[in-house]
Amino acid sequence: MNAQVIRDFWSAFDRFEFEAALPLLHDDFIAELPQSSERFRGRDNFIAFNKAYPGKWRCTILQLVAEEDKVVTETQVSDGNETFVAVSFFTLKDGRICHLREFWPDAMEAPAWRAHWTERR
Question: How many CB atoms lie within 10 A of CB 98?
């Protein structure tokens, strides 16, 4: 069930129907973005932030792992020009998302010194 809540969350974001995600978020919802040292307290603040975010970003879950009240996703997010990956750690309570800790790692060039051990994709 918790995995489906997260699938529904990403589906609502993919359709740009952010209000559809509101019932999936717990009344005590908190989202943390450690890389920018930001915390969104309250589901209304989080949804307003996402509605105001520039562009139309499509969301595709690449991987989902669920165990008890924890769900982790690796999600590709793209506006057609730029593509990023979000790694999201969800905690659920009473069937709704109460905490989200999300990382948006930047792509990087692999160091040349380790090239003989790796393959380029």
Answer: 17
Closest C-alpha to 29, from 6, 47, 13, 17: 47
Q: Can you say how many angstroms the Cα of residue 60 is from the centroid of all Cα atoms in its chain?
A: 10
pTM of the complete model: 0.93
Name all contacts of 21-28 with Cβ < 8 Å and 24+ positions apart.
Answer: 21/47, 22/47, 23/96, 24/96, 24/97, 25/96, 25/97, 25/98, 26/92, 26/93, 26/94, 26/96, 26/97, 26/98, 28/93, 28/98
Torsion angle of alpha carbons 86, 20, 43, 34, nearest 10°? 0
Q: Quick one: tokens of 75? A: 């999600």
CA nearest to 95, candidates 11, 2, 18: 2
* Residue 99: per-residue pLDDT: 98
The one-letter code for the residue type at 42 is G
Residue 90: band (very low, low, confident or very high) from pLDDT cuts 50, 70, 90: very high
